[in-house]
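[step 3/7] inverse_fold.run input=structure_tokens len=105
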């Protein structure tokens, strides 16, 4: 599965998600692009978009996207707080529905 990590997600989380083709917004050269445009870019190249921005689903129309949105809900964006979510994230990614939001906490 091709996954894009939002700027707010610690890039080191990639190391904990084997079996997926993961890129960060920074690696794609998409830093600073706002959510609406970023989701459109992600939709063209990725299967899922991973973020910690809990407001993203309410601020964007997800139903029209051919992209799964996964929101990680943790105490902070630090890897120490995101790493414990990795097993649940790995289990959820293959079934994350496109055009909808999956929350992992």
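[step 3/7] decode complete -> sequence:
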């Amino acid at each position: 599965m091709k996954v894009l990590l939002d700027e707010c997600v610690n890039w080191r989380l990639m190391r904990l998600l084997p079996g997926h083709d993961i890129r960060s917004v920074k690696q794609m050269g998409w830093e600073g692009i706002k959510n609406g445009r970023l989701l459109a870019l992600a939709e063209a190249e990725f299967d899922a978009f991973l973020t910690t921005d809990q407001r993203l689903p309410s601020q964007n129309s997800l139903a029209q996207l051919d992209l799964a949105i996964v929101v990680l809900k943790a105490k902070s964006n630090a890897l120490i707080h995101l790493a414990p979510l990795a097993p649940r994230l790995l289990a959820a990614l293959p079934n994350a529905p496109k055009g909808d939001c999956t929350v992992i906490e």
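[step 4/7] annotate
Strands lie at 2-5, 21-24, 48-51, 68-72, 101-104.
Helices lie at 25-28, 35-45, 56-59, 79-82, 86-92.
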